[in-house]
Amino acid sequence: MTEKEKAKAGLLYNNNHDPQLIKERTECKKICRKYNLLEIDDFEGREATIRELFSKIGKDFVIEQPMYCDYGYNIEIGDHFFSNHNLVILDEAKVTIGDYVFIGPDCGIYTAGHPLDVEQRNEGLEYAYPITIGHNVWLGGGVKIMPGVAIGDNTVIASGSIVTKSIPSNVLAGGVPCKVIREITEADKEKYK
């Protein structure tokens, strides 16, 4: 079994020393650098570069520069996606993001983690668990999502939260670690009128 196959299976794998993974990450970093250096008003170039990088991306998206990822081919994004500056996606495993997702600045989506055992960690071993973000989700600035997390539809994650466990649909959640604060209700529609 290759290191890439181990990663896909959720097993410990060697990300630091595997030539295939190093090559794929290097190619991805080159595309990210190309994207980040494009002129702000080069909308066609920006769209083409993201479509070259991600495995699936829907219509009508904005990804503000800079943005970084590790492989790109593990990322799927739905329609009407927006991310602000400094989005980091460590996509060692699949990252699936639904429609109408808004991501604030300085957010991180991290599928990769490292063993607690020092010997395994020092060998360069890590694990990768998929992350799923539902439809109509808003991540406030500085949110960090850890490996294996799923965020339900219509949920808001408060700024600065670290999401270590899955969060259900239709809630406001926040904190370190992130926890459900309350349900989002009909009264929330009236707040800003």
Describe this structure in words.
This protein has 5 helices and 20 strands. The protein has a single domain, classed as Hexapeptide repeat proteins (UDP N-Acetylglucosamine Acyltransferase, domain 1), CATH 2.160.10.10. The model has no long low-confidence stretch (mean pLDDT 96). The chain has helices at 3-8, 19-37, 43-53, 118-122, 187-190, and strands spanning 13-14, 56-57, 62-63, 67-69, 75-77, 82-83, 87-90, 95-97, 102-103, 108-110, 112-113, 125-128, 131-133, 138-139, 144-145, 150-151, 156-157, 162-163, 171-174, 179-183. It has a 7-stranded mixed beta sheet, with no helix packed on it. A 5-stranded parallel beta sheet has the order 2-5-8-13-16, with no helix packed on it. It is α/β, with parallel strands linked by helices. 23% of the residues lie in helices and 28% in strands.
In short:
With 193 residues, the protein is an alpha/beta fold. It has helices spanning 3-8, 19-37, 43-53, 118-122, 187-190; strands at 13-14, 56-57, 62-63, 67-69, 75-77, 82-83, 87-90, 95-97, 102-103, 108-110, 112-113, 125-128, 131-133, 138-139, 144-145, 150-151, 156-157, 162-163, 171-174, 179-183. The protein has a single domain (3-190), classed as 3 Solenoid (UDP N-Acetylglucosamine Acyltransferase, domain 1).
